Amino acid sequence: MERLIVEYQRMFKLLDGWAIIYDTTAKYKNQCAINLAKKQATIYEWIGDGIELDNFILHEILHINLRVVRDYENKECLDNEETFVRDICNFIDRARSDS
Questions:
Q1: pLDDT tens profile 48-76
Q2: CA atoms within 13 A on the CB side of 77
Q3: What are the residues facing 23 on neighbouring strands?
Q4: pTM here?
């Protein structure tokens, strides 16, 4: 899992110097926690249905990127972020299927 995180992380310059881990032991699932000040993020275990694990990792990596570039206080921004991330993941998933 760490290899996949590093692979996706390298695609985004904003995440240079970040420590991103995958945690299967936490009580949290299907989400990530982000500490902007420390440049750290934890992606919590995916236990859902509907998308592949690698797509979930990409989904959370995109959330981390977006959090780096904008304020996280606004609920409307959160909803827009989720829509944006899903759209990008769907686009990439379709591109993978076509190749």
A1: 888 889 999 999 999 998 887 775 566 66
A2: 9
A3: 44
A4: 0.76
DSSP helix, strand, coil percent of the chain (3-state; round to 5): 55, 15, 35
What backbone torsions phi and psi does residue 42 show, to the nearest 5 degrees?
A: -120, 125
Q: CB atoms < 10 A from the CB of 6, how many?
A: 10
Six-digit token string for 10:
């390298």
26-to-30, 33, 44, 69, 70 alpha-carbon distances in Å: 11, 11, 7, 27, 27
Residues 17-38: what's their mean pLDDT? Answer: 95
Go through the domains of the chain in sequence order and give each one's CATH number: 2-98 (3.30.2010)
- Coil, strand or helix at 16: coil
- Digit-coded pLDDT (tens) for 69-83: 775 566 666 776 777
